[in-house]
Every structure is written in structure tokens, then in C-alpha cells.
């Protein structure tokens, strides 16, 4: 009996050793064995015929016909020989024939057809000081463009061309843009021709960039390069999300930080330009200043919300309402005022002659004033 038990134990030990060696060196033998294989659920086949492969071709096909190339030219005076540094001598040589010749400088950008009757939205800096503007469509047609009006403070301009069968882009309407949304930038970078790049919305409400007076940019990492200015930033259905305006770059090329004017803001400005030729913004005649921690401590404030009036235009709307330098504006029409940029953006949509209520602090006491809004003076660029 003992001999049989030893034989059984040796046999089991040898079998376990063989199983360990096979499992270590050739595990595929075990998987192929019907007795030892573990049942595996079948993997369903991927149906590529129903959009499993992501493509934005339909969105591009919808928006591309509305994106145009904008070519501008202007004449500049170029000295034949270097002029002396002395202002009087320089003026003397400028008046002499043969020392100055006229040269035509050209530049390029992009634009978006926003109405089928020929209205085009682009950046002001694309057509600034241009003597002639020409537009090239994606179907090969070209036409001279007329400047309807411009708004340098938001860097937008409206052009008009006379061509039949124009395809206008659709605005995104009430659809809210969110951080992380996929967007496509369409334009004419470096003049190579119409180009589409893809990215996401990186941030919203970007300001204090020193680009425009009124800034509320969409930031995107979709590649935007020189020549894209004025082009379309669209969503994945082909609707206009923004007007590509600027990039942050130390090299002149895209570094993944581009900025676009939101389509809703551009639509409001465009309508005003088409109807009146200009943009009217509310104005109080004050220069606001942000409240720093040091200023908040000096004025005994609990928070840094609000703005300090750094200067007041004499006989301006705020002056007539009794506001003075050093007053701290806390609310406008019941809405909190957080900083100077937000304060200007709260005033801008107000209509001239509209009355607004300001809650401000003076000498540690809260006071109220009613101000009749004026019209912001237009900035004349040299």
C-alpha cells in the first residue's frame, strides 16, 4: 500500500512539473486545447460604413464656398536714396522730383460671405489704409470689393461685392461654444491657397491681450497663420463660431495659440455697420482702473471687485451725474462690476441717451447716481 501511494505521488508531481513547463514555455498549447481553453466572447465587427471613421468633410464642404481670399493694395512713397536725418533737409528732398517714387504694396487676408447679397465680414487690419480691395472666391471668381464700414475698436470690417449665386455661411446662433469643442479654421495662410486646420476651443473670454480695445476672444489651438486673418472658425456642422483675428507667436508662425472674435459679437457689429455704416457704443466719459490689493487695503475694501475712476471728462456724462476721480463703481444697473475690462463691456451695449444706475462708494459710504449714457467718440487713426 505504501508503494502504491509513493507511485501515485511521484506521478502527480511529474504531471504538475510538465504542466508548469508547458504553461511557461508554450502557453499557446493550452489555449488551443479544447479541454483547457477559456470561452471568449466574440468581438463584434466595426461597421465603418456608418461613420465610425471620424471626418469633418461635410462641415468643410458647407463652409468653404463662403470663405474668400482678400487682396489689398496701397501706394506708398519710397525714397530713391536714403534721406538725411535732419527734418528740414528731409522735407526739402521730399519735395524735389526724382527723389521719391511711388510703390504699390500688396497684402492678403481672408473673409467670410455672411449674406448672399454680397456682404463679407473680415478684419479691419486686413483692409486698413488700402487703396484697392479685391476678393477671390473658392470657385475661382474674382471681384473688386467696396468698404461698407469698419470698426477699429473690435478689428472688424464689412465689404460688399456684386456677384450672383453667392454662398453665405450660417452663424452658430444660440449654440454655446464650450471649451473642448472641436473647431476648424479656414483661410488663406501665407497665400498658399484655401486651407483648413483642426483644433479645439482652448479657452473663452480671453482679454487684456493689447490687440483691440474691446476683447472677448475665443482661444483655439487650430493652426492660424498670417493670411488667416478674417477667415472662418467653424464648428463640426459648418456653422460660423468666430472670425480668426490674431495669434500669439514669437516666430510669425502658429504656436497653437490663436484668437477669434465670437460670431455673436461679430454679427451685432456687422448689422450696425450695414445699417448705419458705423458702430455706436455707450460711453460715460470715465477712465476706469482695476482695484489692486494695495488699493483695496488703502480704501478699506473687503474685496477687489469694482473699479476706481482714474479720470473723468469734464462735462461728460459721468461728470454731469456727479461722479469724480477716486469714486469706486461697484454696480451698474444692479450688475456687479468686477474689473475695468468688464466695466467697459457692460457700458458698450448701452444706447445713447439711455439712463443707467451706478452704485459707487465715496469716503467709505455707498451712493447712487443716474447717468445718461453718451455715444463713444470715434477713434481717428492716422
Question: Which shape, going by the Cα principal axes?
Answer: extended
CATH fold category name of the largest domain: Thrombin, subunit H
How do the helices and strands follow one another from N- to C-terminus? HHHEHEEHEEEEEEEEEEHEEHEHEEHEEE
The secondary structure category is: alpha+beta
* Second CATH tier, the architecture of the largest domain: Beta Barrel
Instruction: Report the oligomer.
Output: single chain
Low-confidence stretches: 33-48
From the alpha-carbon coordinates, what is the Rg to the nearest angstrom?
33 Å
State the separation between the terminal residues, measured CA to CA: 115 Å
Number of helices: 9
Number of strands: 21
Helix content: 10-25%
Organism: Pollutimonas nitritireducens
Domain PDZ: 273-337
GO biological process, one term: proteolysis
GO molecular function, one term: serine-type endopeptidase activity
Explain the layout of strands and helices.
Blueprint: H1 2-25, H2 27-32, H3 57-63, E1 67-79, H4 87-94, E2 100-113, E3 119-122, H5 124-127, E4 132-136, E5 142-144, E6 146-151, E7 156-160, E8 182-187, E9 195-206, E10 217-220, E11 232-234, E12 240-247, E13 258-262, H6 263-276, E14 282-283, E15 286-290, H7 293-298, E16 307-312, H8 317-320, E17 328-332, E18 335-336, H9 340-347, E19 355-362, E20 365-372, E21 374-375
Antiparallel strand pairs: 1-2, 1-4, 2-3, 3-7, 4-5, 6-7, 8-9, 8-11, 9-10, 10-13, 11-12, 12-13, 14-21, 15-16, 16-17, 17-18, 17-19, 19-20
Organism: Pollutimonas nitritireducens
InterPro entries: Chloro_Bact_Ser_Proteases, PDZ, PDZ_sf, Peptidase_S1_PA, Peptidase_S1C
Protein name: 2-alkenal reductase
